[in-house]
Amino acid sequence: MLTNTPPQASLFPKKHALAIRIWHWVTFSLFTATIVMVLLANTLFDTKPNIAMVQDQVKEKGGMVTTEQARNVAHEYRDKLWNTHRIIGYFLAFALLSRVVIEIALSKEEKIVSRIKIAAGVTKVNRGIGSDARHYLTVKYSYLIFYGLFFIMACTGLILSFEDVEFLKPIHNIARSIHSFGQYTIYGYIVFHLIGVVRADVTEYPGIISRMVNKGNA
Fold it and tell me: Which parts of the chain fold into alpha helices (H)?
């Protein structure tokens, strides 16, 4: 049976395992890189707006290219960005798999499921830190949603990457649609997460960011 916990005792960990901290920042860097690739491919290196630029540059050098030739040149740069995006996607898929391994290797007290169960129990029996427990549950459930989105994006991305595999061809179009829509849910989550973390760090949970950088002093 759970006993009452002092009101000042927060469920949020005072320190994070080294593996979690490394995983967090590596994954954040990979997501940032792939988002940059997508933005560049759809803006500065979008094929259609660059066709005229290629023709003008060749013309200035005394040459001449057709619209189709210019399109092929402009499209090549966009292809390079998407190829980079695909490679980063492989690393992200590996990161997701490694997160499962890390979760298995963590102590029972550090596992997400265990902490959710504790928070749910505290919410019911202890009014003293009920708000903290509810906040903790909200955060952890949002993580589970993120991992679900991450899994969907990884699976659909791999389907798109291996487009020449025969048994994947029938689901290629639906995978593309899901992947295209899913990216916006990831963008939204990242923005929501950053705002939430910064707000928490400057209000009720000071030091939450620094504890993800180092193991924390408390």
Answer: 18-42, 47-60, 67-105, 112-125, 130-161, 172-202, 210-213
Amino acid at 138: T
Verdict on whether the full-model pTM lies above 0.85: no
> What are 141's two structure tokens?
């459930």
The answer on 117 and 73 residing in a single domain is no
Q: Is residue 4 part of a domain?
A: no
The answer to whether 15 and 215 have CB atoms below 8 angstroms apart is yes
Contact by Cβ (8 Å): 158, 174: no
pLDDT at 216: 54
N residues, the chain: 218
- What is the DSSP annotation of 81-97? HHHHHHHHHHHHHHHHH
